[in-house]
Amino acid sequence: MIRLRVFSRAFVLATLAFASTNSFGGEVLINGSLEASAAPTSWTLDNFIKDEPTLVVNATEQIGGAASEFEGGLGLFLRPFAGNVGTYEGLNLPVSSVLSQVVNISPNRTYTFTGSAFWQGDGDSDTNDGYSGGVEFMLEGSASDPDFTGEVPSPTQTYFQMEFMDSSSNVIGDPIRLDLKDDDQLNDNTWMQHVVSGVSPDNATKLRVSAAALDMLDNFSAQSAYFDSFSLRDNTNPNAERLQNADLDAVGAPLGFQIEEVRAGADTLIGYRDFANHTDDGQQGVWLRAFAGGDAEVYQIVDASPGGQYEFTTWSKWETGYSGGLDDPNVVTTIGMDFLDAGGTVLSTEVLDLVEAGQFNDGTWRDFSLTATAPANTAQVRVSAGAIGMYNSGVNPQSAFFDDFSLIETLTGITGDYNGNGVLDAGDLDLQGAGIRANDPNYDLNGDGSTNYDDRLAWLHDLKKTWVGDANLDGEFNTSDLVVALTGGQYEDEIAGNSTWETGDWDGDGDFTTSDLVAALSDGGYEGGVRPAVAAVPEPASWTLLLIGLLGLRRKRA
């Protein structure tokens, strides 16, 4: 029985790790459900599962219920049970969360880092009840102690820390760490402030402060922990706050997403809150705080492929007084897709106006979608949801919400588009030539089991509908193609493998030689116009025309 349990856990973990690095079903968005935790603005938040670096876990949430009694607003909710619910139900994985911020400092000053913590529990250390970081042994009957022994040690460590660093961000000396349990923090539902202090060394230019909870486990009871009300000050100016967003009240975007707002005093229009969640087992969604007034959107940019089909879907809910649903044309709420080239230039745009799509102010979640094909030269796609012109309507409630984003990619591809830029061009022929020389089965275009010149003819005749010798690929083989090829100066130059389709390598051997002219002559397209559905066998006269054209061009160049 024990062997089966261990095997099942290993199998599930391997499956989850594989799924986290592969887009099953064509999903290409990162964290479309918005469940991977948002870092508070100006802070770095690292949530992870022990020994499983590829897995994503929502070990924290920035919510009002976690706010300190000293300040209110928002605080950081630590979710020790996150490794034993949802995707990880039954696995009882140890989860960790490290919140940190780096600030510039001066040497030889005393810095004091303070913060507050709250741990749930019954306040009795003998019962092992509450937050796993506040008990010596895991609760009897919990996932860690299913046999009710009361002798399974808790691995959880919770601490505040300061690390002095030099200009290259190398840590100087040992970190100054305060274990909160050793500092008399108890599982007694009480906020407690903790203080860490130290003198910056001579070569210190930076200071990293951290609040960490490592290897948290599900303890099957009221077991949450909260962090809030941080501060960093020095002895030369004790009234100056050195931290940004020290009270954690400004919310950052969830993993993978970014925010864009247009309003004086930004970062007020979009929030990520539990009451904005759509799915029953979810934790958070996008909250448009329309009453603050202005324009705001949340967006994500991911890689895309030319010719690919993309379907962008999201859910939205509007409250009774939301300004976007009050028949005001100046407020427009949309979802959109922008296809971008490698330089970030917009190639094409698809936009859906949610009013026109049937959304209105009735507090009902509805799903909306956009579908589009990525144009040639697409490198990325930007998906977004938001609104412009929002204002305080005076009718409450008046917020709007988005959640559960999805972007499904279907790569239909273009046969023969070997360089993947969405068009059949000379670059594809150059890659095909290299494939023919290497006998690469990936370039067996006609499917006869061999990679050879017949595959080149299949590309030219069947896909591009043109002739051997059409150097500029305009659909015809004529004097202009000879000009293009000879301008490269590689005809019979005795430099092996230096030629391309455009410089005369028409047979795919890597060089521009007489054999390429023979291949072009044999195909019969010289001065014959565009290729007909059924091409005739070349007449000797066309050979003569080609040779005359070639000789004339070579005399001009001589």
Sheet having the most strands: 5 strands, antiparallel
State the end-to-end CA separation: 87 Å
Q: Note the overall shape.
A: elongated
Output the CATH homologous superfamily of the largest domain: Galactose-binding domain-like
Fraction of residues in helices?
10-25%
* Structural class determined from secondary elements: alpha+beta
Could you say what the CATH architecture of the largest domain is?
Sandwich
Number of spatially distinct domains:
3
Rg from Cα: 33 Å
Q: What fraction of the residues are assigned to beta strands by DSSP?
A: 25-35%
- Unreliable residue stretches: 1-25, 536-541
Question: What integer is the average pLDDT?
Answer: 87
Could you please say which CATH topology of the largest domain applies here?
A: Jelly Rolls
Number of DSSP E strands: 20
Strand order of the largest sheet: 1-4-9-6-7
Count of DSSP-assigned helices? 6
Order of helices and strands: HEEEEEEEEEEEEEEEEEEEEHHHHH
The level-1 CATH class of the largest domain = Mainly Beta
General description of the model:
- By secondary structure, the protein is α+β, with helices and mostly antiparallel strands.
- It has three domains: 39-250, Galactose-binding domain-like (Jelly Rolls), CATH 2.60.120.260; 270-410, Sandwich (Jelly Rolls); 426-557, no CATH class.
- Helix content is 14%, strand content 28%.
- Strands 1-4-9-6-7 form a five-stranded antiparallel sheet, with no helix packed on it.
- Helix 2 runs antiparallel to helix 3 (453-463) and helix 4 crosses helix 6.
- The relative contact order is 0.10.
